[in-house]
Amino acid sequence: MSAVLADYGAGNLLSVRSALDRVGVAATISADPDRVREAPLAVIAGVGNAEAAARRLETDGLAEALRERVDDGRPVLGICLGMQLLFEDSEEGGSGLAVLRGPVRRLRAGRVPHMGWNTLRLTAPSVLLDGVDGADVYFAHSFACVPADPVAVAEVDHEGAVVAAVERGPVAGVQFHPERSAAPGARILRNAVAWSRSA
Fold it and tell me: How many structural domains compose the chain?
């Protein structure tokens, strides 16, 4: 199994690639739209600013390649900012890929950013999160998705419910960082491989 991480200048690509390597996935980092379009699994990882990231994806042709993947039923996994980029407009600025409907909003909480470990609660059946209901995973974000459709499969409590994961057809995303989430994170990445094979 191999995967490609879409390279739009995000800061955590190497750590995500290393985490995928540890679960047996030969992961590469590429800004080539053709490689992103054709890989068995495409991953949008990332930390940083949504507007700048969305602009870079569009400018480099990666946004079109990712949308074509989804249209063709080929799996795309978003991590943290990458999950937010699956959605539409963001209060941080810019527009995402819009492969899932709904906005991205700044967290309505007294403590922003949401940093550290939090406990997952599954809200729907999920291949991606099989075996990790109730596990603690690592978050670092100030914005969160507000899906317009029933695609959320997990949430956490951060002064109110926050969507932690989404899954629909060939599209999935996690707001937390599996590459920083120890054994539960490794389980999720292994699940992502199985999910991508069946998407």
Answer: 1
Q: Is 110 exposed, middle or buried (0-12, 13-18, 19+ CB in 10 A)?
A: exposed
* DSSP state at residue 130: T
- 141 and 114 Cβ atoms separated by less than 8 Å: yes
Q: What tens digit of pLDDT does each residue of 132-170 get?
A: 999 999 999 999 999 999 999 999 999 999 999 999 999
Give me the helix-helix angle, 182-198 and 13-22, nearest 10°: 80
Q: Looking at the annotation, which residues are catalytic?
A: 80, 177, 179
Question: Could you tell me the pTM of the whole model?
Answer: 0.96
Domain with 119, as residue range(s), is 2-198
Q: Which two tokens stand for residue 96?
A: 């995402």
